[in-house]
Amino acid sequence: MASGRKDFLSQAAPENYVAGLGRGATGFTTRSDLGPAREGPTPEQIQAALTKRAQQLGAAAPTAYGNNSREKGGKEDEKEEEDERFQDPDNEVGLFAYGQFDQEDDEADRIYQEVDEKMDKRRRARREAREKAEREDFESKNPKIQQQFADLKRTLASVSEEDWANLPEVGDLTGKNRRDKQNSRQRFYAVPDSVLAGARDSAQYGTTVAEDGSQTNAEGEGAGTMTNFADIGAARDKVLQVRLDQAALSGDAASGSATSIDPTGYLTSLNKSESKSSEAEVGDVKRVRVLLESVTKTNPKHAPGWIALARLEEIAGRIVVARTLLAKGCELCPKSEDIWLENIRLNEGHNAKVIAANAIKNNDRSTKLWTEAMLLETDVRAKKNVLRQAILHIPQSVQIWKEAVNLESDPADARLLLAKAVEMIPQSVELWLALAHIETPENAQKVLNAARKAVPTSFEIWIAAARLQEQMGTFEKINVMKRAVQSLVRENAMLKREEWIVEAEKCEKEGAVLTCGGIIQETLGWGLDEDDDRKVTWMEDAKASISRGMYETARAIYAYALRVFVNRRSIWIAAADLERIHGTKAALWQVLEKAVEACPQSEELWLQLAKEKWQSGEIDEARRVLGRAFHQNPNNEDIWLAAVKLEADAKQTDQARELLATARSEAGTDRVWIKSVAFERQLGNTDDALDLVNQGLQLFPKADKLWMMKGQLYEAQKKIPQAREAYGTGTRACSKSVALWLLASRLEENNGAVVRARSILDKARLAVPKSPELWTESVRVERRAKNITQAKTMMARAIQEVPSSGLLWTESIWFLEPRASRKARSLEAMKKCENDAVLFIAIGRIFWSERRLDKAMTWFEKAIVSNSDYGDGWAWYYKFLLEHGTEVCRPGYTPLYEHSANILIQEKRADVVTKCTTVEPKHGEIWQSIAKDPVNAHKTTEELLTLVSNTLN
């Protein structure tokens, strides 16, 4: 079977094949290949070619042993880089010029190139990131000038054209600075007496010869006599008088350099001086006059040029010239009403009426000229005649009709004029509304209907119609605003929602409450889709109206929002807050009743309603409210505890105890157990309270308040070891409770174990490192132990640990700083604590101690505003008013009668008590210690305020 492969002899020779190469044969080329046959180069030819190539490269000719330089003994660095000829494999020269590369060499080069590219690609990301980081670091350390001013260049985009125009010229700043330096180096010397004497005698020419032969002046003073200081003083006065007289001769009263003042023209001279000072910014009066005269000559038909030139002459005091210029300007520009008005103003009191008549002849359709002519008349009849003539010439002028109506004293005549006016100008909404305003309600309705047909795009007419319906008592029967919205939408004249709110507030200001509500009801949702956050938008609208004092508008906004979002608790709470602060009690009850019906699961609304009923003295009604709340929220602890508080305040002890027992079984939370223990403790049942607290700790071992109450119960019984054990166990179970650590430390300190108290506080700070209360207590322990140095050291550590604590800064300012440095220390504290009520109280006390009562009151009020829940702030302010109310009831005001001052003080104190009762503060060191005392369990906020203020020192 024959094979398909060719035999060896018939195959093509491999590339670069040379026959007999392995036996020592050499290759040759025949004529049939490239031309005539030739031998290869001889060694001599190769050596010559290498030498020639070396000369071209500027190197020594090579030999069999290397370069000639080495053969001659020249020494080169062994680390010298290789010749350029051997670096590029694609550009071989010299001995390698005759090398032949085959396909395998190309394949190897390609493979090496692919490997290099792959390795470069793997390292590229890291290399580029490194290079980018190095470049950014270099640019940040060496920024370009362009980058340094980039932010300033961006802010230039906000500069208006007016600001650009008002930029001052650079001027010769360099020369100015150089001149200032030269002037500062100048030396000034006192004027010699001889100069003054010479100036004194400069105006005198008569001389006489004395008996001794010496020449004397007119006053008999000899040339060689002793200096007379009285005469020198007189000479100084004379020189000053001469200078003043010269200034008076060169100046005038208007410039302010005259020495005499004309009483009759004093004010006029002041006006002129002010005008000249303003003209000085533009240039000198003469130069401006030349420019304006050039304007009037170049363009005599340009009225503003004549007006400007006349005003310049008026400023210069040349009234007659100004009037002449305006008369000429009126001749050249008879159709310009501005120049006629200027001429009338300048000639008022002389021939202004004649000028006005000429002006109207040339401009009989100018409303301003007719109005000015009417104002020139003094008689009402003459005024009416002028306006009637004006109506004949320009019947479409609303201003003329309004002036004519205003002159009428009889309503019937005014009504006739307005009827004629709306007939002549049916598009004037203002005239229609004026006519409807003076008509009877029935006729006004007809007028507004006619106005609506004449001007269908006017929203003012619809609002006036709604207000008319409110005035007539038929607002509920006809929804005018609904029809208004439909009509305006049809006419493409609907306002934006914000603009309708503004119109509603205007109606509220003018007493149209129903119209205000109608506007809000029909337009509040205009332009808002369901996808928009309508609730947030409407809440912001209501808050904005409240901030402007528009409570009816805000009430209408809440009502509309509640119709859309019936079950939103936040809107109901906001509406209730509005009624509580700015409404009536009945309105508040009504809102809360609707709220609990809409949101029956919201215990907050139930509790607010029950609280309002209870505070009004309706205990039974409050019980019924809580009963309904129980039915809707059967196991809610807030409602249980509210019911217990209600019964406890009503002195129904047994019923309150039963409610607590039921609450512990049905809603047994730690809070219910805490309230149960507190209830028994308030009644003085210490054993029952201890029994309950032990039961509660079995269920809730992590409740820190139960541990605190257990320790306090033992401490009240003087059982110090048991109290210490309770606090110790509690701090181990609740290591993050700051109040528990404080009670444990104070127990040891009160019993004389200061070292143990210090150790407890050290452990507490390790458990709660950033607590300002623990740091403050550590400082106080050292201070009470008379270790002031240690207290200051501890305070320094505390401020480094918690630099923004007003409590620490207050402790440092009042107890560790001398009186003189308290202000500086408080300023440093203000930089660290921006809005801290405790620090504000401390600053107010500093001003109080310095008797700067106005500032003290300001800081006390600032503390209350910043944190109204801080009870100590209210107490300090109330104590301040009790002691110094007479002096601060009105800063800078001294009452004529002490009785009136006392009334103002009582009002101020009553206002503080009322606001404190409304806020019901819960926090504050002194406030909590007194409010949580079982003895003060049932005291009101006003009673607590008095107790705390009396305790403060």
UniProtKB/TrEMBL annotation:
Region listing for Disordered, in residue ranges: 1-147
UniProt lineage: Eukaryota, Fungi, Dikarya, Ascomycota, Pezizomycotina
Principal localisation: nucleus
Compositional bias (Acidic residues): 78-91
Official protein name in the record: PRP1 splicing factor N-terminal domain-containing protein
Domain of life from the UniProt record: Eukaryota
Localisation per UniProt entry: Nucleus
Signal peptide: none
The species this protein was found in: Penicillium salamii
